[in-house]
Design goal:
The protein is an alpha+beta fold and 770 residues long. The chain is 31% helix and 12% strand. The chain contains 21 helices and 21 strands. The chain has a 6-stranded antiparallel β-sheet, with no helix packed on it. Strands 4, 5, 6 and 7 form a 4-stranded antiparallel β-sheet that branches.
Length: 770
């Protein structure tokens, strides 16, 4: 699983562009004008749905269309409530009516190359699949894949409803939104059928809610209702009942609870985009008033954000759907602004950036096709088509980044089920099974691609990747077509697929004891005349993405801490250095040597009721642990960091509000000896963590990669060594020694690249010397 935080995406892109002086150990996929490939887009669209079967979890996997997948994590049927995190015991009788102490949370889909289940990404992916059908009506039928689409949507909806517990009034009481502890899951590299580790559950309540999760779940359920309303109106009605309840729960009890989630998907507390999209889906189904969020150059009724359509930013999906539903030029103008802001799509240049770049390219394609508005000859459509042809193999590597499509594709993918290998991804094995239809990350903004099982950003697939792919490919197929028989020719010859396969249209019962009252869904393109919403979209003017684009320091200035709150017995003031990143935003690096816990108290004059930020262990590049806190009446708030054994420093960031002041920092000292060489528990993390933070170089004064001698290894060291290579500065003798990996007395481009690879966690610290 890739790191999915937007900030890390930008950090990696920045490091790549600053440091990539040569390519070493990676193949280069150059963005050059080439002739458009003859691709079959119906085939690609139909094939992409099989990825979700590859990531299915539960007791019914034996019956899906893949020969190599079997039932897994069946013991999720009896998840112990005693091990649940953030569970409100007042709902125990609702969750556990037979009183045996267990709850059934089996089913759903694994998130990526790991086996965690997140309702957030299941919701986003399936909302995107439904949206691809809404924006391109009938395209799955033309591709011969409508029954498969419906089966996937219903299976996901079954799980989302199963893990949502309604009270007697039909209101949401509590939600199990994450299954499995990511740290435990990542410590095992084996197929899901062979895993037996205990799977913890994480819950949402009105006192600790995550409105973004609720919004994405509501979108998926209302989107499913839209797709099946004609073929199965009773099931659509049940989905809408849950979708409305989730929308109201997320709107009435705003929150950004991150238990089990934030280390992998750090949602933004500004959740108005997810709720606006959920309201749009409900409106289209005739179950809500017309949304009123009107955009203007990235400003949606005070919520300013025009980041790409992604698992935590869905305003572009909202604009595309509202433009389709209303034809209102205000949404077209917004899409044009955001399209140009993201540099547009032109023939001859692959426009991609971030971790798992292919998904973001597909998100940009979605906007382009919305603007093309059915015109296959428009520059929007032609530019987007070139991008998809590039992804599908029309690139200098002649490989498709949609696994199983075309004549060749990467085989060393980061996916435990399809590529269990030796149990150690460092061995870089070829996949045991072809994971048909999986969109992998592909090349980065600079065109580099590394076909390596442990190169998470390049070779891992995920639910949100394929959701974005569906939005792009469905529009492409609708404009340029293909053959509804092409996928059949591939699948009928694939040993991994049971073909032909009947997906059927089962009618699951309502997972709650209450009896739903079927409703009569409205037409697919409503034009309600009442513009007044029953639950207006929030207009919180706070920025939705206050995170800096590059959290590395540019000019650290040591300060003497003078906290106003004195520490108690057994504690001491934590020493710190106040620093600035490239956005001139202040953050603090604390010395936590020998500590067990760091308690930081801040003060703000803001009237906001919530603050947020993160702790980041910078020697590993970017390995953030998010936090949120509620200020007291004096504007003070306190956050705590539990210090892993052996860690000596931590960076502390406050994203919101923007100008808090440090009141105190207290270090609770450890009574246990600190190990000098901690052993990682996850050699193949999905949100990459350092695998060996202790240098192997015997010289105790040498810190590998630290060119500027500030004690950390980050982008500033890359800038320093690059300036030394260009003759613009001279490194201090110890700084040169720290980066002279081949011991020839010189700073060289290969060494700059090695540091970059360490920062983005493609290699360990000890491997810098290899």
């Amino acid at each position: 699983m890739k790191n999915k935080k937007k900030m890390k995406n930008r950090l990696i892109a920045g490091i790549m562009s600053a440091a990539m002086l040569t390519s070493m150990g990676a193949s280069t996929v150059t963005s050059v004008p080439v002739a458009a490939a003859d691709n079959d887009y119906y085939e690609a669209l139909a094939l992409s749905l099989y990825f979700f079967d590859g990531n299915a979890c539960g007791t019914d996997v034996d019956d899906n269309p893949l020969t190599w997948r079997g039932n897994c994590h069946t013991y999720d049927e009896k998840a112990a409530i005693s091990e649940a995190e953030n569970f409100d015991s007042s709902y125990k009788s609702l969750v556990d009516p037979d009183g045996d102490g267990y709850v059934d949370v089996s089913g759903g889909y694994h998130d990526a190359g790991d086996h965690i289940k997140f309702n957030l990404t299941m919701g986003f992916a399936m909302s995107s699949l439904a949206m691809s059908e809404y924006l391109n009506p009938g395209v799955y039928e033309k591709a011969g894949a409508k029954d498969h689409l419906v089966a996937l949507l219903k299976r996901n909806a079954d799980y989302l409803m199963k893990t949502t517990f309604l009270d007697d009034s039909g209101n949401v009481a509590t939600i199990c939104h994450v299954v499995a502890d990511g740290g435990v899951d990542h410590s095992e590299w084996k197929s899901p059928e062979d895993q037996t580790y205990p799977r913890k559950t994480y819950w949402l309540t009105k006192n600790a809610n995550n409105s973004a999760v609720c919004g994405e779940m509501a979108c998926a359920l209302a989107g499913t209702a839209y797709v099946v309303k004609d073929s199965d109106p009773a099931y659509a009605s049940t989905c809408l009942k849950y979708a409305k309840a989730l929308y109201e729960f997320g709107s009435n009890y705003k929150g950004n609870e991150g238990g089990g989630l934030s280390s992998y998907y750090g949602t933004n507390p500004m959740c108005s985009d997810e709720l606006a999209l959920a309201q749009t889906w409900l409106w289209i189904n005739g179950e809500a008033s017309k949304p009123t969020a009107t955009p203007n150059n990235g400003n949606y009724n005070g919520d300013y954000d025009y980041y790409l359509y992604s698992w935590d930013k869905v305003w572009q999906g909202y604009a595309a759907m509202m433009y389709k539903a209303t034809g209102d030029s205000v949404f077209k103008s917004e899409l044009e602004f955001e399209y140009n802001n993201n540099k547009g799509l032109v023939e001859g240049t692959y426009n991609a950036d971030g971790w798992g770049a292919s998904r973001y390219n597909c998100a940009k394609q979605m906007v382009a096709y919305a603007l093309a508005n059915g015109d296959a000859n428009s520059s929007y459509a032609k530019g987007a088509k070139w991008q998809m042809d590039y992804i599908l193999g029309n690139n200098s590597s002649n490989k498709s980044f949609l696994v199983g499509y075309g004549s060749a594709w990467p085989t060393k993918i980061h996916h435990r089920a399809a590529n269990p290998g030796t149990g150690n991804p460092q061995d870089n094995t070829d996949a045991k099974y072809t994971l048909y239809g999986a969109l992998i990350g592909g090349p980065n903004a600079n065109g580099e691609y590394e076909d390596n099982q442990n190169s998470y950003s390049c070779t891992e697939p995920a639910l949100d990747y394929n959701g974005c792919f569906a939005l792009a490919c469905a529009a492409l197929a609708d404009l340029y077509g293909g053959s509804d028989k092409s996928a059949a020719s591939i699948l009928s010859n694939a040993s991994e697929v049971k073909y032909p396969f009947s997906f059927g249209t089962p009618n699951p019962t309502d997972p709650t004891p209450t009896d739903p009252t079927p409703t009569d869904p409205t037409p697919t393109d409503p034009t309600p005349t009442d513009p007044t919403p029953t639950d207006p979209t929030p207009t919180d003017p706070a920025p939705t993405d206050p995170t800096p684009t590059d959290p590395t320091p540019t000019d650290p200035t040591p300060t003497d801490p003078t906290p106003t709150n004195p520490p108690v017995s057994g504690e001491k003031d934590a020493s710190y250095t106040e620093k600035k990143n490239e956005d001139d935003k202040t953050y603090w690096t604390f010395d936590i040597t020998g500590g067990e816990k760091l308690t930081v108290t801040m003060k703000t004059n803001s009237s906001d009721t919530e603050t947020n930020g993160c702790f980041n262990y910078s020697p590993s590049g970017w390995n953030a642990e998010d936090w949120t806190a509620t200020p007291n009446g004096n504007g003070e708030f306190t956050v705590t960091y539990t210090i892993p054994s052996g860690q000596t420093s931590i960076d502390f960031y406050v994203w919101w509000p923007e100008s808090p002041s440090l009141v105190s920092a207290v270090l609770t000292t450890s009574t246990q000896p600190t190990p000098t060489d901690p052993t990682p528990t996850d050699p193949t993390p999905t949100d990459p963590t350092p695998t060996d933070p202790t240098p192997t170089e015997p010289d105790g004064n040498r810190k590998l990669g630290d060119a500027n001698l500030d004690g950390v290894v980050d982008i500033i060291d890359i800038i320093s060594i690059n300036k030394a290579i260009l003759g613009q500065k001279t490194l201090e003798p110890q700084g040169l020694k720290n980066v002279d990996f081949n011991n020839n007395g010189m700073a060289e481009p290969e060494e700059s690249l090695t540091i970059m690879r360490y920062i983005v966690e493609l290699i360990t610290e000890s491997e810098m010397l290899n």
